[in-house]
Design brief:
Number of helices: 16
Number of strands: 25
Radius of gyration: 23 Å
Largest sheet: 9 strands, mixed
Helix content: 25-40%
Bound molecules: methylmalonyl-coenzyme A, adenosine monophosphate
CATH topology of the largest domain: Rossmann fold
CATH superfamily of the largest domain: ANL, N-terminal domain
Strand order of the largest sheet: 2-1-10-9-11-12-13-14-15
Number of domains: 3
Strand content: 25-35%
C-alpha cells in the first residue's frame, strides 16, 4: 500500500456517504464530507511547504475539524502532534521547540499567547476554531476536495505524543504508522467492532485513548461515533440509547454510577463498555455489573505502546485485572534491577514487545535506551503480576506518577517549580485519594529557615506555568521531608502520612 495508515483508516471511506460523526444539535457528518475537508487541509499544508515527516503541533478544542487535521496529516505524510488544550503557554513552548514543529494550529482565542511561541520557535501560526472557522480554515477552503495521498511506509512516523518523565521534562514518543495501525486492527477484532457500532465518544482527542483507541477502531470498522465535546453526565445519559459501545476512564463510570438515572434499562441494548488509562477499582466493576448487568472490559496501555492487554470479549472479564496480552504482543514480568524474568505469580516490572511499541523518544537517544531494550522490550515502569490463569494485574508503579481523572501528572515537573518559589527549601508532590478523579495532587513544602511561606502567592505563581489539572489541589507545610538512609525522600511514608487527606 502507498500509505498504510491513511489507506486503511481513511482511504477506504473516500466515497462513503455513511455517517461518521453524530454531532450535537442533531447534526452529523458523513465519511465523504469529513474526508473532503481533510483533503482540503492536506492541500493547505502542502501549499505551506510542509513535507513528509514535518511536525504539525495542534492545540485546538475537540471538534470534527480537529479530527480532520489528524486525517490530513496522515494523507500528507505529516507527523500529527496533538496537545492538551489545558496546557499553558510555557508548556506549549517546550513542545513546539522540542519537536521543531513547522506549524502551530491553535484557537483564535489563544492567538496572542501562541504568536510569540510560534515566532520564537520559527513555526508558522494558523488558527482553527471548534466551529470550523479560523485562518487555516479560510486558506484550506480554496483547495480541492481531493488530495494525492503522499506515499509512506509502515515504519514512517505518524504521530508524536508527549509524555512526561521522572526528570520532569516531557519526551516526544515517536509513533509509527504500523504502531497505530497494528493496534487498531487487533483491537477491532478483539472487541468485535463492525460498521453497525455507534461509539459514545466523550474523551479528549489529544491522547491515545480518545484519539487512537476510540477513533482508529471506528475508522477501521467504518462505524460511527456520537462525538461529544467533553464528558457531560446529562448528555451521556441522553445519548446512551443511541449508542452501542462506550469507552472511558474510570471517572466516567463512577460518575455514571452516582446518578440514579443510570439504570439497567438505559444500558440493556449496549454491547460493550471499555475502561482504561487508570485503575478501575474492583468495587466499581462489581457495582457496575450489579446496576446494569454489564461487565466493564478493562484494558491497559501507554502512550508509548498503545494497548498492551485486554480482558476478553468472550470469557471472564476479571475485576481488578487488565486481562491478557493482546495477540502479537509479548508481555513479561521482570526483576527491575536485573531485568531477568520472574516466576509466574511474582510481582515485577511489566515489559512489552510487539508491533505496538514506539520507535523511541524524539532526539533523546539516552532516554530511549533507558526504557527500550535493544531486544525490543519496553520497560513500562508499571509493576504487575500474572495469575495462574494468565490474567495480568497492575499492582503498583516503579515510576513516580499520579493519574488524576485519566490524566498523567509527573510529580517531578511540579516539584521543580515549587522548589524555585520564594522561601521554599524543598518540596515533594504526591497523589492522595480523590473520590472523583481517583487520585489528586498534594504538594508538601519545607520552608527555608526563618521563612514564612506565602501559599497563595506560590499557588498563583505556579498556576502561570502549569496546566490547571496538574496544579496541587492543596499545599501543606512540614518541618522536614521523611528520608531514607541514602537521603532519598520517602514518598511512601508521605502518602501514608497524608492518606486521610482526601481532597474533594
Ligand atoms: C478537569 N480538571 C481536572 C481533571 N479534569 N483536575 C484534575 N484531574 C483531571 N483529570 C479540573 C479542571 O482544570 C477544572 O478546574 C475542573 O476540574 C473542572 O473542569 P472540567 O473540564 O469541567 O472537568 P470535567 O469535565 O469534569 O473533566 C473531568 C474528566 C476529564 C471528564 C475526568 O478530565 C477527562 O475527560 N479525562 C480523561 C483523560 C483521558 O482521556 N486520558 C487518557 C490518556 P478548575 O475548576 O479549578 O478550573 S491516554 C492514556 O492514559 C493511556 C494510553 C491509556 O491507557 O488510555
Ligand atoms: P500514558 O503514558 O499517559 O498513556 O499513561 C500510561 C499509564 O497509565 C500506564 O503506564 C499505567 O500506569 C496507567 N494505566 C493505563 N491503563 C491502566 C489500567 N487499566 N489500569 C491501571 N493503570 C493503567
Amino acid at each position: 500500500m502507498a500509505n498504510p495508515l491513511f489507506d486503511s483508516l481513511f482511504g477506504q471511506h473516500l466515497e462513503s456517504e455513511a455517517v461518521f460523526l453524530h454531532l450535537p444539535e442533531d447534526k452529523s457528518l458523513t465519511y465523504g464530507d469529513f474526508l473532503r475537508l481533510a483533503a482540503q487541509y492536506a492541500g493547505a499544508f502542502a501549499d505551506m511547504g510542509l513535507v513528509a515527516g514535518d511536525r504539525v503541533a495542534v492545540q485546538i478544542e475537540k471538534s470534527p475539524q480537529a479530527l480532520a487535521v489528524y486525517a490530513a496529516c496522515a494523507q500528507a505524510g505529516l507527523v500529527f502532534l496533538p496537545l492538551n488544550t489545558a496546557y499553558t503557554a510555557d508548556e506549549v513552548t517546550y513542545f513546539v521547540e522540542n519537536s521543531g514543529a513547522g506549524i502551530v494550529l491553535g484557537d483564535d482565542n489563544k492567538r496572542s499567547a501562541l504568536e510569540p511561541i510560534a515566532k520564537s520557535c520559527g513555526a508558522r501560526l494558523e488558527t482553527l476554531n471548534a466551529d470550523g472557522s479560523g485562518s487555516f480554515a479560510d486558506k484550506a477552503a480554496g483547495f480541492p476536495t481531493v488530495f494525492d495521498t503522499v506515499p509512506r511506509e509502515a515504519g514512517d512516523l505518524a504521530a508524536f505524543l508527549y509524555t512526561s518523565g521522572t526528570t520532569g521534562r516531557s519526551k516526544g514518543a515517536m509513533l509509527t504508522q504500523d504502531n497505530l495501525l497494528s493496534n487498531a486492527q487487533t483491537l477491532q477484532k478483539e472487541w468485535r467492532f463492525t460498521a453497525r457500532d455507534v461509539l459514545l465518544h466523550a474523551l479528549p482527542i489529544f491522547h491515545t485513548h480518545g484519539l487512537f483507541v476510540a477513533s482508529n477502531i471506528t475508522l477501521l470498522s467504518g462505524s460511527s461515533m456520537i462525538f461529544l465535546p467533553k464528558f457531560d453526565l446529562d448528555q451521556i445519559i441522553a445519548d446512551l440509547p443511541r449508542a452501542s459501545t462506550m469507552m472511558g476512564v474510570p471517572t466516567f463510570y463512577t460518575r455514571l454510577l452516582s446518578d440514579a438515572r443510570f439504570t439497567k434499562e438505559l444500558t440493556t441494548h449496549m454491547r460493550l463498555f471499555v475502561s482504561g488509562s487508570a485503575p478501575l477499582l474492583a468495587e466499581t466493576h462489581v457495582q457496575f455489573e450489579e446496576r446494569t448487568g454489564h461487565r466493564i472490559l478493562e484494558r491497559y496501555g501507554m502512550t508509548e505502546t498503545n494497548m498492551n492487554t485486554s480482558n476478553p470479549y468472550d470469557g471472564e472479564r476479571r475485576a481488578g485485572t487488565v486481562g491478557f496480552p493482546l495477540p502479537g504482543i509479548e508481555l513479561k514480568i521482570t526483576d527491575s534491577n536485573t531485568g531477568e524474568p520472574l516466576p509466574q505469580g511474582e510481582i515485577g516490572e511489566i515489559e512489552v514487545r510487539g508491533p505496538n511499541v514506539f520507535k523511541g523518544y524524539w532526539q533523546m537517544p539516552e532516554k530511549t535506551a533507558e526504557e527500550l531494550r535493544s531486544d525490543g522490550f519496553f520497560m513500562t515502569g508499571d509493576l504487575g503480576q500474572i495469575d495462574a490463569d494468565g490474567y495480568v494485574s497492575i499492582v503498583g508503579r516503579n515510576k513516580d506518577l499520579i493519574i488524576s481523572g485519566g490524566y498523567n501528572i509527573y510529580p517531578k515537573e511540579i516539584e521543580l517549580l515549587l522548589d524555585d518559589q520564594q522561601g521554599v527549601l524543598e518540596s515533594a508532590v504526591i497523589g492522595v485519594p480523590h473520590p472523583d478523579f481517583g487520585e489528586s495532587v498534594l504538594g508538601v513544602l519545607v520552608a527555608r529557615p526563618e521563612q514564612e511561606l506565602d501559599i497563595e502567592g506560590i499557588r498563583q505563581k505556579i498556576g502561570k506555568s502549569l496546566a490547571r489539572f496538574k496544579q496541587p489541589q492543596k499545599l501543606v507545610v512540614v518541618p522536614e521531608l521523611p528520608r531514607n538512609t541514602m537521603g532519598k525522600v520517602q514518598k511512601k511514608a508521605l502518602r501514608e502520612m497524608f492518606s486521610g487527606e482526601i481532597i474533594s
